[in-house]
């Protein structure tokens, strides 16, 4: 059953990457990256169980935190950036 | 007892995987940003919770259970917040949802508000 | 998947999307490391590659601008050089033994000693930590000095002196912006103490599980980044004094170096920790503890310094005025 969940998560990760590469707007990409990060957390915890080494959970915790921080950072700085870009185009 | 635990953990894992895949199909197939975000944001939290509960039921070790619960708690906090922030930023930068008339009008042209 | 993402990174022109994709690249390679059972490397890649480097790139992009300059000349020479180097590397791998083979030179030379004896000599369950901090202490010292130098370089290039009216203008801008981030701020207030606590756990648990000074420093710095991003630069300046951060960075390197010097003064080799206590194994424990503490201090403070200088630069440019709602 763990293996089935692993395969499902893997498939979803590929889907998220496809959206991140295609994604017409910036926000689609951020969404895909966020989703990818959550799936990585799951993937790592399941992998830890399959390989019988539950220390992997520490890494999963770090991922969950880092993922959140990077999404917030992207949103925070993209605001500034898009404004700057539109200003440059006006000139 | 053990078989019950095993069985329920399998059920939780299966539901979680199904939700994951439905979210993945959603992010690929839906037409615009807001619907995609709906698909992902709604399924993601529940799917993660389901899979983590499945793992908690799967193993007997106490410390590992605690760690999994920490991850679960953080996911429940973080993932809706991230979705909220994303939607708010997108709306703030005037990314409009695609309407029915738009889809008929421009099937090829991709609307992107940010230049 | 890694190769696909790498091609997409090359192909794209929009730098923001590229930084997003490189975040995915970091996550992917970390899961690859996990699958290869290299826990500590995966830990580092998770905290540095996926999180902090994406953030720093973004902040750098805010300073420069969003799109790549169009390339005029054809980079044929560069392509040739890359091709030759790549083929040389591939040629080099032909001589390597098969993956996992027991006759590989790496398993004959020092690895058996590390694996068999480190428990008696060092007494630390995590072999990676004992190799990193005790057997190879000198290399790690070099790495710490490199990080410190990077911090100094960024300071020298980008350090900003802000004037009073600037601070007031940025303050008002920040206040107007923070009303939008109410939910985020509340959740971040709940999370930040937890992140810092987790950083300490990683720092001091590094002897037993994956983790150590580098990772802990980066996680700690990430907590401060989160605070800075949501509450504004000037608030963060009030919380964290920048000169204090500089002193902290220097003292981390100093702590690491002085541990080596102490063992030198006591008539042993550089970084031979057994002099720190009457019992050699306890001495090793103390040495690794102190060294990891030094690494953690330096990494965290240098990261914060770099981030502050980048972000301070990009916020010193006139802030957007027309913020509706």
What tags apply to this protein structure?
heterotrimer, A: 91 residues, mainly alpha, 3 helices, flat, B: 115 residues
Measured between the Cα atoms of the first and last residue of chain B, the distance is 60 Å
**Helix and strand succession of chain B?**
HHHH
Total discrete domains of chain C: 2
Say how many strands of chain B there are: 0
Please report which band the strand proportion of chain C falls in: under 5%, 5-15%, 15-25%, 25-35%, 35-45% or over 45%: under 5%
What sort of overall outline of chain B do the alpha carbons produce when their principal axes are compared? elongated
Count of distinct structural domains of chain B: 1
User: What multimeric state do the chains show?
Assistant: heterotrimer
Approximate shape of chain C: globular
How far is it from the N-terminal to the C-terminal residue of chain C, by CA? 42 Å
| Major sheet attributes of chain B | none
Structural class of chain C: mainly alpha
Order of helices and strands of chain C: HHHHHHHHHHHHHH
Q: Please compute the radius of gyration of chain C using only Cα atoms.
A: 23 Å
By DSSP, the count of extended strands of chain C is: 0
Unreliably modeled segments of chain B: 108-115
Write up this protein.
The complex is a heterotrimer of chains A (91), B (115) and C (325). Chain A has helices at 2-22, 26-51, 56-90. Chain A has 91 residues and is an all-alpha fold. Chain A has one domain. In chain A, helix 1 runs antiparallel to helix 2 (26-51). The mean pLDDT of chain A is 76. With 115 residues, chain B is an all-alpha fold. Chain B has one domain (2-105). Helices cover 79% and strands 0% of the residues of chain B. Chain B has four helices and no strands. Chain C is an all-alpha fold and 325 residues long. Chain C folds into two domains: 1-96, NADH-ubiquinone/plastoquinone oxidoreductase chain 6, subunit NuoJ (Four Helix Bundle (Hemerythrin (Met), subunit A), Up-down Bundle); 125-325. Chain C is 76% helix and 0% strand. Chain C is globular. The model of chain C is unreliable at 318-325 (pLDDT under 50). Classes of the chains: A mainly alpha (91), B mainly alpha (115), C mainly alpha (325). Chains A and B meet through helix 1, helix 2 and helix 3 of A and helix 1, helix 2 and helix 3 of B.
């Amino acid at each position: 059953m763990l293996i089935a969940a692993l395969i499902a998560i893997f498939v979803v990760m590929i889907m998220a990457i496809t959206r991140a590469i295609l994604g017409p707007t910036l926000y689609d990409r951020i969404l895909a990256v966020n989703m990818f990060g959550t799936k990585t957390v799951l993937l790592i915890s399941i992998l830890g169980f399959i390989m019988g080494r539950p220390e992997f959970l520490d890494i999963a915790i770090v991922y969950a935190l880092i993922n959140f921080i990077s999404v917030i950072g992207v949103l925070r700085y993209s605001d500034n950036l898009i404004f700057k870009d539109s200003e440059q185009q006006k000139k | 007892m053990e078989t019950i635990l095993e069985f329920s953990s399998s059920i939780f894992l299966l539901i979680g995987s199904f939700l994951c895949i439905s979210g993945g199909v959603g992010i690929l197939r839906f037409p615009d940003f807001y619907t995609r975000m709906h698909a992902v944001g709604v399924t993601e939290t529940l799917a993660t919770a389901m899979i983590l509960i499945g793992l908690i039921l799967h193993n007997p070790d106490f410390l590992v259970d605690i760690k999994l619960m920490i991850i679960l708690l953080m996911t429940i906090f973080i993932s809706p917040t991230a979705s909220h922030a994303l939607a708010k930023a997108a709306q703030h930068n005037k990314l409009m949802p695609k309407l029915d008339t738009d889809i008929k009008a421009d099937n090829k042209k991709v609307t992107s508000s940010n230049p | 998947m890694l190769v696909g993402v790498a091609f997409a990174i090359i192909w794209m022109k929009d730098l923001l999307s590229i930084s997003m994709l490189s975040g995915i690249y970091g996550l992917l390679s970390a899961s690859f490391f996990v699958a290869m059972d290299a826990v500590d490397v995966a830990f580092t890649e998770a905290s540095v590659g996926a999180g902090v480097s994406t953030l720093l790139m973004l902040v750098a992009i805010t300073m420069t601008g969003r799109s790549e300059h169009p390339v005029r000349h054809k980079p044929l020479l560069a392509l040739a050089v890359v091709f030759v180097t790549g083929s040389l590397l591939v040629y080099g791998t032909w001589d390597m033994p098969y993956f996992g083979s027991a006759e590989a030179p790496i398993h004959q030379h020092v690895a058996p000693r590390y694996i068999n004896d480190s428990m008696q000599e060092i007494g630390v369950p995590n072999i990676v930590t004992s190799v990193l901090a005790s057997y190879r202490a000198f290399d790690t010292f070099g790495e710490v000095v490199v990080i410190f130098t990077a911090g100094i370089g960024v300071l020298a290039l980008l350090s900003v002196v802000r004037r009073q009216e600037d601070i007031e203008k940025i303050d008002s801008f920040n206040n107007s912006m923070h009303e939008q981030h109410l939910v985020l701020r509340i959740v971040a207030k709940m999370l930040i103490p937890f992140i810092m606590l987790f950083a300490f756990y990683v720092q001091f648990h590094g002897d037993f599980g994956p983790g150590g000074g580098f990772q802990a420093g980066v996680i700690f710095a990430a907590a401060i980044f989160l605070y800075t991003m949501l509450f504004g630069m000037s608030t963060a300046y009030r919380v964290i004094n920048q000169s204090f951060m500089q002193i902290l960075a220097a003292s981390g390197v100093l702590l690491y170096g002085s541990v080596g010097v102490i063992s030198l003064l006591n008539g042993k080799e550089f970084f031979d920790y057994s002099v720190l206590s009457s019992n050699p194994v306890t001495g090793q424990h103390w040495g690794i503890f102190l060294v990891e503490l030094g690494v953690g201090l330096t990494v965290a403070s240098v990261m914060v310094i770099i981030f502050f200088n980048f972000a301070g630069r990009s916020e010193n440019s006139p802030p957007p005025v027309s913020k509706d709602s």
